[in-house]
Every structure is written in C-alpha cells, then in structure tokens.
Amino acid sequence: MRVTFIGDSITDAGRDRADPDSLGDGYVALLAPGLRAAGATVRNLGIAGNRARDLAARWDSELLPTAPELLTVYVGVNDMWRRFDSDDPTSAEEFRATLDPLLAGVAGERGPRLILMEPYFLPVTQEQREWLDDLDGKRAVVRDLAASHGAAFVPLHEVLTAAATRQPVAELAPDGVHPTPRGSALIAEAWRTAASISDSR
C-alpha cells in the first residue's frame, strides 16, 4: 500500500525535502514504522507554511505522482495565521473552494482512501483566543469535506484542546501550533483511531 501525507509544518516536521524517504520527526515518523510493518510505503509531502492554495499549486506535480492508495491531507492553520501576522486572510469560502476540487479529483472508487485532519490551535495569549473564530470556519469546512468525499475525519482540535485541560499547552505545542513529541504522539494516535489502523510493530 502506498501511503502519502501532505500538509504544512506539522506534517513536514523538519523533513529533508531533498530525500524522498525523509519523514521528519513528527507524527508521520511515528506512524511510519507501523505502516511499514504492514507492508506500506510512506511518503511525507508536508511543507512548512503551506496553506490550501499552496497544496493546490503542487497537487498535480508532487502529490499525484506518488499514486497514493491512502492519502492524508492536513492543512488550515496557516490559512488562519496569515490573517493575523500578515493581513492576508483566507475566508472559509475560499478555503473550501480550493480544497473541494482537489479532493473531488482523487475521491471515488478508483481513488485513494482519504483521511482529513482537522486543523488545531491552542492559544497561548489572551489575544489569540479571538483567532479561534477564524479557525472555526476552516475546521467546519474540513469536517464537511470529509463527509462529502467519504473520508475519515481526525478531530485534532478536539483532541488537543481536551489534552490542554490536563497538562500545560507548553507540553503539547509551545506556540499553539508546532507539537512537542507528546503533541505529535497525540496526533499520531488520533490518526490511528480515525483510520482504524493499529500500530502493528
């Protein structure tokens, strides 16, 4: 089985982009041993800073040649973040209009099994709590697209928000986005649960 992950920095996790076998040190690297033990090949196509529009720009040239049989898409937090650090917002409508045709192009009986991961954010300042209103729109889009395209849905914002009630945010994602090893482990476990794939190592 050919397994591909595409997304932003949380998927990228410092991978060596010159090495197609590099997986970084995040949730993809945690999932890979179990997937490989089951006979899968694993590719990480995450690029830090990517938004939905960036995935669209490289979808045909980078993703489709991997011919995934299981495809995970994880994007959305930068579509939120750029509104606040660069005054470059992405509306929920634009986010949907970009992602929907990409997924429609690969969905169906002959396409890969799809897994969509909900973008999450753990505010670390009082001001950032207001950012969640923007993220909520992207989260709803991802949930809706998972339903409409028959994809498994990984409710990461719920998972990480719940974890943050039990331990400090700094132990999960110090800047609210980029996970610690503990945060990456929670992401990997949430993926396994949604995908109904156990760690078979």
Explain the overall architecture.
By secondary structure, the chain is α/β, with parallel strands linked by helices. The chain is 45% helix and 11% strand. The protein contains 8 helices and 5 strands. It has a 5-stranded parallel beta sheet with strand order 2-1-3-4-5, sandwiched between helices. α2 crosses α8 and α3 runs parallel beside α5.
Topology, element by element:
Layout: E1 2-7, H1 9-12, H2 27-37, E2 41-44, H3 52-63, E3 70-74, H4 77-85, H5 92-106, E4 113-117, H6 132-148, E5 152-154, H7 156-163, H8 181-195
Parallel strand pairs: 1-2, 1-3, 3-4, 4-5
Q: What is the top-level CATH class?
A: Alpha Beta
Mean pLDDT: 95
The number of distinct β-strands equals: 5
Strand adjacency order, main sheet:
2-1-3-4-5
Short summary of the structure?
The protein is an alpha/beta fold.
Keywords:
five-stranded parallel beta sheet, Rossmann fold, about 200 residues, about 45% helix, alpha/beta, 8 helices
